[in-house]
Write a structure and sequence with these properties.
Elements lengths: L1 E4 L5 E5 L2 E4 L2 E4 L4 H8 L7 E7 L4 E7 L7 E7 L1 E8 L10 E7 L5 E4 L3 E7 L4 E7 L8 E3 L27 H4 L8
Antiparallel strand pairs: 1-2, 2-10, 3-4, 5-12, 6-11, 6-13, 7-10, 7-12, 8-9, 8-11
Amino acid sequence: MRISEMSVPGAWVFAPQVHGDARGAFAETFRASEFEKVTGRTLDLLQVNTSVSAAGVLRGIHYTDDPPGQAKYVTCTYGAFLDVVVDLRPGSPTFGRWDSVLLDDLDRRSVFLSEGLGHAVLSLQDGSVLTYLCSLEYSPGHDHDLDALDPDLAIDWPVTGRDGRPLTYLRSAKDEAAPRLADL
């Protein structure tokens, strides 16, 4: 597995070796010993989430108060997403910086986000599926949203899907009403 830290400190991309043959494909997408060697921590698994999204669905930016903080290990099991990580840690020298990685069912990359980082995904194909391994159970009193289309963040969201057709962004009412970075 190739592991690289993103430009947002505390976020890593895990790119497994995908073994394919006439039967299909196999990839080892998580190994605790490799994860711990690179991140210097364990992943305490307390909740697993799965989301299914149509092309153009934009979820986030979501984050959890730190403390308690929620770390996530995110994998695309079908389809394709642009996965975006935003540094929302107060006092961080990279506060407001974002980075992105394509998560899809071909390369089988995963992304790990440490506590204090914001997270958003844009589905690039109908029926795309994400699985989130979470270090904290859902805690509504600690969870927050940030506007993924905030011009101050200037995230370079794709305008076409995996099939080349134009995307129309679809967000929840909660995500549409989210504050901007300047309001934090």
